[in-house]
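Posting for a labmate who doesn't have an account.
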Amino acid sequence: MGKLKDDMMEASIITGDDLMQGMIVMICEGKFAGIYYWDDSFQFEETTYEENMYWIAKDFSTFIEW
């Protein structure tokens, strides 16, 4: 997944992926800190190049709990 490094925000890591070719990303600091679904393969109709991250949880513990 090193080829995606240029597309990622600073202080973020990919923590997993799904069968639809999207990824679970954790942003570790800043105003956008949290867990997100990154629809990099445009599986959702509303996804655009500017908006392809979907908030899931405020932190990894909450994500796992759900």
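Reply:
Got it, the structure tokens are right above this. Residues 2-65 form one domain.
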